[in-house]
Amino acid sequence: MAPSGEAVQPRHPLEVPGITARTIVSYLYLEEICSVRAASRGCSYQYESIGGAARCRVRAASRERFWAHAVQVEGNRRRRLARLDGTGVGGYFESCAGLDRGRGGLARLGDKGVEGEIKRDVRRTFASRSFFAPDVAGGGQDLLADVLVALAKANAETSYCQGMNLVAGALLEVHVRGGTLDDVPLEPTNGVLKRRAQRRTFWLVAALADGAHPAELGRRRRKARDNRLELSELWRPGMPQLKLRVFQFDRLVSAHLPRLRAHFRDIGLAPDVLASQWFFTVFAYVVPIAWLPRLWDACFHDGWKAVYRLSLALLSAAVDELCRMSLDAAGKYLRDRDGLATKVLATFGSVEGLVAASCGEFKVSRKTLGGLAEQFGFALLEERCVLSRGESDQPPGESWLCLLYTSDAADDTPCVDLGGRRI
Asked: Are 306 and 279 a contacting pair, CB within 8 Å?
């Protein structure tokens, strides 16, 4: 019996004597399969229309299932597990995280290599939130460390990229809190529920990183389309799609906010500054964390067109201020989460107003993005031809170099500056 005044941990039916860790893993694996398939049936009708996630309010209790359906977690998991020989299928996350070989958590990580990167980044991930309070055994930092280690092991080509910690950290807390990110005291959570949150976060981030399989697209009744973000193309070494995303966003800003784009060109602010701060973390770095569930409803359902729409809406709220700023002031302002949030609330009233404005005022379609992708291909070919002849006369502010942060640049700061180091 617990001592007087001490919180009693809620007991899950599986947390009884005689139930092994392997049994718990098997139970969670079967639960995931059933819940995802049920979610696919329940979400298809309500949210399959274009922009449905933006127009329909997703209830917090349904958010986890909605996200799993939107990014096609079941198909991604099926393809990954099909590569295995049948052993360890149910415990794939535990195997990748090293939990089947001993205790997990932050303390077991080394100080060098990928583990060192994860260890440093976890310690400063949403450090002001109670869920990620340091030195709490089995707390948010330990749970996030296990998820990031598993993602690095499961995706050898991508491994770990700074920025993944913010995406995975926010998703992990959403799963623990039941679909919201309200920073209120949490009720004591048992080990089974924590492991369930870890597994769901792992599979969701893995699906966000991957693109749709051609066979999966071919099974759709309507015209094949894939709205997933394919974040691995930004996270893996070389960042293959970074230039494309910067090019598309630069052209969209020129079309929808020409005065702001002209000012950015005049002061030498390259469009890749926003890409490194906003796109790598899907807004987790630039907006209050409590807004993320609502923004991610749209991003996970509609993909890059929702990301661009929301980016344009965020910029439109501060056009007048930005057009009066110098290069240094504008860069600092775009990294100021509180200042930008205050301006957004003054302009749109709420995060719901921001999402509605992004859909109603900024037209970004898959056809538009496809046309810009073709333009990018021709522009890239022309640039290579010019460089091969040694005739480059690229004007200031049009550089495709990406401003990112590195661990050594941010070790001594309480929060990470994604625009701190030119690589």
From this structure: no
Pairing of strands 421-422, 403-404: antiparallel
For 264-313, give the DSSP string.
HHHHT--THHHIIIIITTTTTTTS-GGGHHHHHHHHHHHTHHHHHHHHHH
288 class by beta-carbon count within 10 Å (0-12 exposed, 13-18 middle, 19+ buried): middle
User: If phi over 0 gives left and psi between -120 and 50 gives alpha, with beta otherwise, what is residue 138?
Assistant: left
pLDDT tens track for 132-169: 988 787 789 999 999 999 999 998 888 999 899 999 99
The two most distant CA atoms of the chain are separated, in Å, by: 80
Query: What are the pLDDT digits (tens) for 105-119?
Result: 898 999 999 999 999
Q: Are 225 and 271 in contact, with CB atoms under 8 Å apart?
A: no
Q: Retrieve residue 380's tokens.
A: 């890239």
As a whole number, mean pLDDT of residues 114-133 equals 93
Residue 111: CB atoms within 10 Å: 9
pTM reported for the whole predicted model: 0.81
Contacts of 328 (CB under 8 A, 6+ apart): none
CB 192 within 8 A of CB 12: yes
Cα–Cα distance measured from residue 222 to residue 414, given in angstroms and rounded to the nearest whole number: 48
In sequence order, which residues have a C-beta less than 8 Å from that of residue 363 and are 6 or more positions away? none
